[in-house]
Amino acid sequence: MGSLRSTQHDCGGGVSHSLLFLLGALLPTVLLFFLASDRVDEQLSSISTFRFRNGSSAHQLTSHAADLPTNGSDGGDKKEESFPGLAELLPRVAMDDGTVIITSVNEAFARPGSLLDLFRGSFHDGEGIGHLLNHTLIVAVDPGALALCKAVHPHCYLLEVMAAGVSSANGFMTRSYLELVWSKLTLQHRVLQLGYNYLYTDLDVLWLRNPFRHISLYADMAVSTDRFNGDAEDLTNAPNTGFYYVRSTNRTVEMVRRWRAARSRFRPLAHDQEVFEAIKGEFVAGELRIKLVFLDTALFDGFCEYHGEMDRVCTMHANCCLRLATKMHDLRNVVADWKRYSSLPPPEKMSSKLRWTYPAKCAATMKIPA
């Protein structure tokens, strides 16, 4: 009997050790599940909204945004701005995952031979990205721009900006320029509320390769930067809101609401990028827990931090550049360089010594050293 009790004890001890081993193995998995549940729930909510484009789905996605904490009185009780026809237009523009590319144009930029032609042409000249034009919503800020847009593009939307001079080539930081950028953010906020992700791109960004391949699926927001410090999550990177992606969730709807509301906290001539730069830490470290990543300038290039390589770049932004004519000159050089590169057979591309032409005219407007 003693040996039997000993055997039973040994078996019981073996079971206990096995249970402890299994529990030890399962515990990290359970913890990871609970930590990830917030993003999983949001992802499932987003997927359901993309599949069922009706009022109840969009309301379900955004109805909890009001439950998130807010910072003081900022006009959140005002009736949401109306955007006639936008909800009906977005399903025709969106990709299968509910993402819309958005850019904006005034009459000066939409005229034949101006920025709109360069922008649209870059999709056709790029590597397999022509189809992305079908998912691009061009927001016209005056009736003249709308008419010119409709002549060349299937998805145009009129957002009338109540400011003088919006049809002309507005100088950076003029009052009409500021009203333009804040009005665009209001429309983008509405796009998120309707359950759509968006990638906003300035019109002076040339598209060369598919940028979505380099935007993290786990990012709430991915934003370009004039100068990249090598760490995609380092908040010391300065954002450039001329090219950025936002995923539609309750938290990002609230983020953009607070971004818009924060305008009143800054000087009257503060633009959207300046305000976002000042408050981005509040979104990341606060209760919204926004996952913000910065895009590498080696892939999302621009005139501020110029890279000569042509084999990886997805977009080229005429940032750090003043005046429309100057942008047009240096962007045309980019187009010519890209066409020369694209015409090479694949083996020659690999060994090509071709480099982008230095944007000398733009650099002169900003006194950027070569």
UniProtKB/TrEMBL annotation:
The keyword NADP belongs to this UniProt entry's keyword annotation: no
Protein name, entry field: Nucleotide-diphospho-sugar transferase domain-containing protein
Keywords assigned: Membrane, Transmembrane, Transmembrane helix
Domain Nucleotide-diphospho-sugar transferase per the UniProt entry, residue ranges: 131-331
Keyword presence, NADP: no
Residues passing through the membrane, by range: 15-36
Organism listed in the record: Triticum turgidum subsp. durum
Region (Disordered): 61-81
